[in-house]
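Subject: for your reference before the review

Hello V.,

The reviewers asked for a structural picture of the protein, and I figured it would be easier to keep everything in one thread rather than splitting it across files. Below is the amino acid sequence we used in the manuscript, unchanged from the supplementary table.
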Amino acid sequence: MDGDDRRTARRALIVIGLLLATLLGLAFAYATLRILIWIVVAAFFAVALKPLVDLVNRRLIRHRALATLLVFTVTFVVLAALAAVIVVPLVDEVARFVDRAPELLREARAGRGPVGRLLDRVGLRDYLANHSDQVRQYGERLRKPAVNVLRSVAEGVAGLITVIVLAYLMVLEAPRITGTVLAVAGPRRGERWRRIGREVSRTISGYLTGNLLISVICGLATFVVLLLTGVPFAAVIALLVAIADLIPLVGATLGAIIAAGAGFLHSPTAGIVVLVFFVVYQQVENHLLQPVILSRAVRLNPLTVLVSVLLAAQLAGLVGALLAIPAAGIVQILLREYVPVHRPPPPAP
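And here is what came back from the structure prediction:
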């Protein structure tokens, strides 16, 4: 075998090895997809909370572990308080609904009360009366997936705890990891990486700030509409809608389901008004508020924001929609740092 044959065989082996390594990497990523998602979400929150931890560490508490613990504790106490504000009235309402369920069922069958009148208007009362056996069988089938629901809830709680612990450790060890990486990179490259890290942190913080602003706007508008239509617990429902609206694209839809359901339980007129409001508002938010506010917060143009969210939601679902805009901002930072820009020469005088 001469030299050319050896080089050809070596190149073929390298290509085969790269293909096998790529396939193994993809298989590993698929097998550990849930863990990878947890790590990405934890890194997202770690980058968002790190500036606050650094501030507390410089101004108040010199011990970084205590500063990190304080910031995480305060953050999740606030989140738990918001959850309690939402959950406690909802539990009371569910208990009241369970107590009134037999009476509401009798009224619905007789065509009386708000539920019965609504069923009469849409023609469902006759259908339910003629297909009562099918409705009963469907209700029995809905009880069977209860074990799967409980399993999903347990997995969600385990995932939340894992994300919190990972984010805490990431923030706690950030100075040590950063110092080690920058020392290995050297002065010149380390300064560039430090600058990239600051811009990435600013991008994620800007995204969170912009997203919170949009959710506040959605919650306030929902509160006004619910208050004008007389829907009870308007503040609690508006807060729940604002939290759901933190999810890009689909958050307003989830909020619409919650608010419109409460509106229809109050009266058909209120339900229709709330539903029409959300149909209009979702278009305004998706095509005006999100592109404009997030483009200024993340320094992306509105078209890039909208296209990034649409593509990421299609490819990776909810997690992709949540991470699309900061990911697009990070890609823009890396392109600006590493891709040379060829500017045309100035015109000759």
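For the response letter, the relevant points are probably these. The chain has two domains: 33-185, 186-339. The chain has a mean pLDDT of 75.

Happy to draft the paragraph if you're swamped.

O.
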